[in-house]
Amino acid sequence: MKRYILLIFLFLIQGIYAQDVEFKAEPSKTRLGVNERLRVSFTMNKDGDNFVPPSFDGFRAQGPMQNIRNSWVNGKHTYSKSYDYILTPTSKGDFTIGQASIEIDDKIYKTLPVKISVGDAVKIQDPYEAARQSATEGVHLVAEVSKTNPYVNEPVSVVYKLYVSQSSDVTNFFVKENPSFNDFWSQTDRFDPQHLTIEKGMYNGEMYRYVVLQKTVLYPQKSGQLELEPLLVNATLQVPTGRNRFGMVNYVSEDKLLSSGIRTINVKPLPEAGKPDDFTGAVGSFDFRVTPSKTSLETGESLQLDVTVSGKGNLKLFTLPKPVVPSALEMYDPEHKENVNVPISGMTGKISDIYTIVPQNRGKYPINQLSFSYFDPATGKYKTITSKDLMIEVTGDAVAATTPAAAGTQKQTVESKEQFRFVDLETKLLPRERDHFFGSTLFYGLLAAPFLIIPLIVLGKRKKEAYDSDVVGNKIRQNNRLAKKYLSAAKKQLGNKEEFYVALEKALHNFLKAKLNIETSEMSKQNIQELLLNRKANPETVADFIRIMDSCEFARYAPSSGAAMQQDYESAVSVITALEKQV
């Protein structure tokens, strides 16, 4: 009897221990060279949620990749789920991979820290690992700056290029974050990724292929050391993993975040020595002209005075000098005109202020010379251009004040009062024919209108109450709207893997809620399959729907190309359309 009790006790102990939760970190190696990589798997024997990875200080991490294994051996079920990371060391030394956490059955479990030792670079024996490193390290994002020590308001061009070596293959990329050029006036030309021109050029002494992503011209607005924020690009690379049984090389897609790096520009202040009093910030090489439309006119006529600066420099960033005229000449606010191009080398063109001047009395009036000063960065000196003196001759009789709209015309004096005789001072009033409103058709129609409208209002109110009380119908309509909304959001996020698959999965879930009237907790794949088949859906269409749900679930944890996302989106639209007709 004691033997049987002992056996039962042992079986109970075994059952209890079989239910123990295990969550551990398993590195592929704990010692490696600085040019090697390792895999770390965070493994659990029971399904969990809210996985939080540790901070991988000292490493560049790629992942996670999720793996699930189910097995039955002699009637015993074994479950294993892991989150895998590929780690690349950034320097030599001893590092510690911290604790990861997972929530299983409303309890938090954590792994033990793992110590990793990174030593000197070792010779890599695996040719495919070397090819993989060559493929991932042969892609560079570079910001080529024309000048690193300009003057204030001197143009600086920045060209962003993506260099790809002959051993690397980039299948897709998109700009993740554009720099904000603080303390600069800037203009950027961005190029369509679908229409880029592939060119060849040298980079670090080797021949590379490259494309120009964008060009920016900058005008620094203050002196000192100014930083250019980096451009961030997410690129998808094809890297080799080995050969299959037919001898062909296998490739996988791998995402890599590229940065152009922070660039520093040392901006020199404009010299104080020799700075003219009329200097307003013009930097470049310019020509200056003051041109009147005419110099001889009659009283009351107008002329236009054109003050123009042309050339190459910061044309949009300074003001033109203002002419000073005698009080007998009435001058109005100018009309400002710009004809400026902004190529990568800097602004070119001209700017003008056109003044309208109207003389009030005859005589000769001088307009004094104007001067325009600018700083020439080529010589490092200030230059001043002075216009000629102008003499305006006005003939004719003096007139009262006029306006630009009336410029060029004279007021006429009143010679006779006959012109006012059209005003008839004797008014004759005629009786108006009475309008019989009371008793008319319009009168009775307006009187009966409220009695006709009241039944319509009552009927509309009843329909509104029935609509509001239809909880199931409203829920279905709401889910239909959400499905369309998230499907549209997924289309906008093509190329952005995480956001795309989250939106696509929400679209599929809301579609099921609308069609099957189920909740999220009921969305097991087996239940979805049974409900769709019971609604006479095509088995192949149901299988395609389940496959897309699997793709949404796993694609967020595995590399995915733009082509794969486009294919998943088109498949989702096709399957949803088919189920709309079948269910």
Automatic annotation (TrEMBL):
It comes from the Bacteria. InterPro entries: BatD. It holds the Pfam family BatD. The chain crosses the membrane at residues 437-459. Keywords: Membrane, Transmembrane, Transmembrane helix. This is Protein BatD. It comes from Flavobacterium alkalisoli.
